[in-house]
Design goal:
By secondary structure, the chain is an all-alpha fold. The protein is built from 4 helices and no strands.
Length: 107
């Protein structure tokens, strides 16, 4: 996945001749880096939460028979990603894998 920016970067030669432009470019780069760091932290927290809920589902299925999917269902509903009642599990997995492939630079 590649980040794009609508502002073109000044050339290194131009930056070496214009300290003010260099300062602006460094400030912009610092702000961009902080935004990416925060976004990564948000995604990491979401992943850890999802993984914890999935592990709880597995533990529940081992102790109380068939999983009720309560842990995951509540989380999916909370974040607005609950699948439709008529959704096919294999289709949902395929959809997810297609998104991963697209984000990874695949087809």
């Amino acid at each position: 996945m590649t980040a794009t920016n609508s502002v073109s970067a000044p050339s290194p030669l131009m930056l070496s001749r214009n300290p003010e432009q260099l300062r602006k470019s460094l400030t912009r780069a610092r702000i961009d880096a902080e935004a990416w760091r925060l976004r990564y932290a948000e995604l990491h927290v979401a992943y850890v939460e999802l993984l914890a809920r999935a592990r709880a589902e597995v533990a529940e299925s081992r102790t109380s028979g068939p999983s009720r999917a309560g842990h995951l269902a509540g989380h999916l509903e909370e974040i607005g990603l609950m699948p439709p009642d008529d959704a096919e599990p294999d289709a949902l997995v395929a959809e997810g894998l297609a998104v991963v492939a697209r984000l990874s630079g695949g087809a």
